[in-house]
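User: I'm curious whether this sequence folds into something compact or stays loose and floppy. Could you predict its structure so I can see for myself?
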Amino acid sequence: MIVAAAVGNVIEWYDFYIFGSLAAILSVKFFDQTSPVAALLSTIALFTAGFLIRPLGAFLFGWMGDRVGRKYTFLLTLTGMGVGTGAIGLIPTYAEIGLTAAFLLFGMRMIQGLCLGGEYGGAITYVAEHVPDEHRGYYTGWLQTSPTLGIVVSLGVIIGTRTYFGNEVFNAWAWRVPFLVSFLLVAIAIWIRLQLQETPIFEEIKAKGQMVKNPWKEAFGRANIKYVLIATVVLIGQGVVWYSGQFWALYFLQQVSKVDPLHSAYIVGAALLLATPSLILYGWLSDKIGRKPVILGGMLLASITYYPLYLWLGTVTVPGNINYPIAIFIIFILVNYVGMVYGPVGAFLAEFFPARIRYTSVSVPYHIGNGWGGGLVPFITSAMFAASGSIGYALLYPIVVPAVCFIIALVVMPETRKISIWKPAEVRA
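Assistant: Here's the prediction. I'll summarize afterward.
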């Protein structure tokens, strides 16, 4: 069950991040090269746009998940994600059709963002509604590894394709291969997910006639909106740490340290593989000591140490004199912060909201936090560095936002570890 949910999630995140991993090439292929910096920032802006539309996907598919069911909703999101990603590998370039190429790329990116907006809420709700209360952090922690593994898979496919075809052929046309691979991966994931059964909690709600008539009204009504807002604060801090700790590390190596794409992928990929178990570890730890101290601890450590860690990373990744073990170790630390904030958050969200509106209530704050809060990290950090040439200015957003969210969440975030979700489909008063 967990494997089936995670496999689909890995592939969806592979689809989403293959775009960001190949941003430098896409900027050349789909935008006017009169200003290379502007072209790169335009590509990053498209990447960011995919994040910004995710809450809309969460809004739409959350309604479907609470009305139709968890299983069929995230089957639909998986299919849309695969089509959107694979189609990017078929789009003609700017040299062939001009500005139309950029518009088509934008359209596919919007499909990616919409569908991803419905994926996480479905996957985390599905897993949470199958596992015992006392081990929810541990089991959902396994699912939380899927985005990181999705990045690893995307880097692995890129490295394999680039190595097989060579840099010249890869830059000419073989960059399309990682996108086209998505068609095959998604087909496999759909087959696996078709074998799944609906969650017992949703089946009970349906059998008892307790299904919510309007998930939007109940999820965002007066009784529940304060819980949505609290979750959003937590998720914004978590989202910024997530993208700052692992995704901007790749941008940093390529755009700041000027490490070539292949060696950047080796460094980040190795660090991610070593650190991915931390998501399970911190999910398990949250079962023992609580969700709140683990999540907030990650935010605090990230805010305090990002600047010295990224300065250190810059000193050990000078082209021609790269200290690979230390570079991998630094990113390993950064991803451990990701493990702290992300490993327990799925369990926290599932426990924080009632079953009848869980899909909607989980999805929307998650994608506001990760799509808007975290999704802005690549664009803001890259733009700030391009404008100033200063690592300190580039890191202002990744440092300040988690610090502010830590302070607010310290006051308003409840502990949910001892909440049982195996209860009637209550309506909040």
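Summary: Residues 345 and 381 are 25 Å apart (CA to CA). The longest strand covers residues 317-318.
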